[in-house]
């Protein structure tokens, strides 16, 4: 028995799932065999997650049985990116006259549901994150889930006390907050229209992503450009452009400064971060600079910022490693209960993340724990360069 499978006494009702999803039993068994349909552990072992996109369902889709019935929490759909605002808006939103522009928060995506009477936070991949679960339980009004058991609450968790995004971006978030940006029906995954969702979120006192306004498609590219310029100055990430009725999937667009901040971060760990991640950020700069027909001077600034974001952090990191330091991402969490800390450690271990946890420090009623996530591949690669090995 694998360690991961320890303590599992719940079996998936394959026949039931087959009937519920309209997928043949044989296909489900194959998914289970290939470990493409995986069971959670511990108190969440009733939850099963689809590792990859399957039969029109996004990866990270979760299914579980409740009172003899199944519930399906679809994975959060990928949001495509506009590279050139004007043609992208005209083509993608051809069926609507106006678009809503919301702020895109830079944190991590969480689906919140009520599970066994407790607010539970599911990650993009379909895991239950014990840390996000503790936080969502404290931040969200449980009445929403009792009043609307048919809905899944989608939000971005951001703030300095977060274990996934090692950047301080939002001055007004002291610890961590949950910014609601979507509500979708269980089962179908259909989203609520923008204003309906925002009204409901307000009724329950949720923090929401900012709505900059609703614009005609003609005025949108220019409006978005000025929003992006302002957001860039404060190093916020960008916007998500949405059909007010949410019949058309949203589109994202980001600030140059946020691209550069990503690159600054990523090039410290050049061998751990995927090449697509780095490359796509450079290409975005090319299209944005082209569309905005920048002055020679602005263009020069952009080139300089891009180059500096790539080279300085790398050179710094190589220097640190030469001195024998290991490069690591530094993050921190703030928990009310040490039990959450233990569960979170176990959670990261199971994800294969190599992390060093400092001793908890008391902070009011909470504990703050600093975490260093080691980027082994970058450390090993750099050390091998110092030993004279070839690339
Ligand atoms: P994706 O597969 O969705 O492109 P990604 O991991 O590359 O995912 P991002 O580039 O961060 O993600 O962009 C999409 C994510 O932005 C969403 O999954 C969501 O978590 C986040 N987000 C933040 N603010 C909003 C918002 N207002 N509306 C929709 N999504 C938002
Ligand atoms: Mg993001």
Would you kindly provide a written description of the structure presented here, covering whatever features stand out?
The mean pLDDT is 95. A five-stranded mixed sheet has the order 5-14-13-6-12. Strands 8-7-9-10-11 form a five-stranded mixed sheet. The relative contact order is 0.11. Helix 8 (256-268) runs antiparallel to helix 9 (275-291) and helix 8 runs parallel beside helix 10 (296-322). It has 391 residues and is an alpha+beta fold. The protein is built from twelve helices and 18 strands. Adenosine-5'-triphosphate binds next to strand 6.
Write the topology of this structure:
Blueprint: H1 14-21, H2 25-33, E1 37-39, E2 48-50, E3 62-66, E4 69-73, E5 80-81, H3 85-92, E6 98-104, E7 108-115, E8 118-123, H4 130-139, H5 142-147, E9 151-158, E10 177-185, H6 194-203, E11 207-208, E12 211-216, H7 220-233, E13 238-242, E14 251-254, H8 256-268, H9 275-291, H10 296-322, E15 328-335, H11 338-350, E16 355-357, E17 361-363, E18 366-374, H12 376-386
Parallel strand pairs: 5-14, 10-11
Antiparallel strand pairs: 1-2, 2-3, 3-4, 6-12, 6-13, 7-8, 7-9, 9-10, 13-14, 15-18, 16-18, 17-18
Helix pairs in contact: 8-9, 8-10
Adenosine-5'-triphosphate (ATP) is lined by residues 76, 78-79, 102-105, 109, 156, 181, 209, 240, 250, 252.
Supply the helix-strand structural class. Answer: alpha+beta
Main-sheet strand order equals: 5-14-13-6-12
The number of distinct helices, counting runs of at least 4 residues, comes to 12
Give the helix level as a range of percent: 25-40%
- Which geometry do the CA atoms define? globular
Q: Tell me how many strands there are.
A: 18
Low-confidence stretches: none
Termini Cα gap? 40 Å
Radius of gyration, CA atoms, in whole angstroms: 22 Å
The ligands found in this model are: adenosine-5'-triphosphate, magnesium ion
- In N-to-C order, the SSE pattern is HHEEEEEHEEEHHEEHEEHEEHHHEHEEEH
Biggest pleated sheet: 5 strands, mixed
* Mean pLDDT figure: 95
**Binned strand content:** 15-25%
């Amino acid at each position: 028995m694998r360690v991961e499978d320890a303590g599992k006494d719940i079996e998936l009702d394959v026949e039931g799932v087959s009937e519920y999803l309209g997928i043949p039993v044989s296909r489900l068994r194959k998914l289970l065999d290939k470990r493409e349909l995986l069971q959670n552990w511990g108190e969440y072992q009733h939850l099963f997650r689809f590792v990859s996109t399957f039969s029109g369902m996004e990866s990270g889709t979760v299914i579980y049985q409740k009172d003899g019935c199944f519930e399906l929490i679809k994975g959060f759909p990928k949001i495509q990116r506009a590279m050139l605002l004007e043609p992208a808006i005209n083509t993608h939103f051809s069926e609507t006259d106006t678009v809503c522009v919301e702020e895109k928060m830079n944190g991590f995506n969480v689906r919140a549901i009520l599970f066994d009477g407790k607010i539970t936070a599911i990650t993009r991949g379909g895991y239950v994150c014990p840390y996000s679960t503790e936080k969502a339980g404290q931040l969200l009004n449980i009445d929403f889930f009792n009043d609307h058991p048919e809905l899944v609450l989608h939000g971005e968790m951001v703030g300095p006390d977060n274990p996934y995004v090692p950047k301080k971006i939002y001055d007004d978030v002291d610890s961590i907050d949950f910014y609601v940006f979507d509500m979708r029906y269980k089962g179908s995954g259909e989203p609520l229209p923008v204003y309906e969702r925002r009204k409901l979120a307000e009724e329950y006192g949720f923090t929401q992503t900012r709505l900059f306004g609703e614009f005609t498609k003609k005025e949108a590219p220019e409006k978005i450009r000025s929003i992006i310029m302002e957001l860039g100055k404060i190093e916020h990430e960008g916007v998500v452009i949405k059909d007010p009725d949410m019949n058309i999937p949203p589109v994202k667009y980001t600030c140059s400064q946020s691209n550069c901040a990503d690159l600054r971060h990523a090039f410290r760990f050049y061998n751990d971060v995927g090449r697509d991640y780095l490359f796509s950020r450079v290409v975005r700069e090319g299209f944005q600079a082209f569309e905005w027909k920048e002055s020679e001077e602005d263009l020069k600034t952009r080139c300089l910022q891009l180059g500096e974001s790539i080279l300085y952090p790398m050179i710094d990191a190589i220097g640190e490693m030469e001195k024998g330091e290991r490069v690591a991402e530094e993050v921190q969490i703030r928990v009310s209960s040490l039990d959450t800390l233990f569960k979170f450690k176990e959670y990261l271990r199971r994800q294969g993340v190599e992390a060093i946890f400092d001793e908890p420090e008391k902070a009011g009623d909470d504990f703050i724990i600093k975490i260093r996530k080691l980027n082994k591949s970058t450390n090993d690669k750099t050390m091998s360069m110092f030993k004279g090995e070839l690339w």
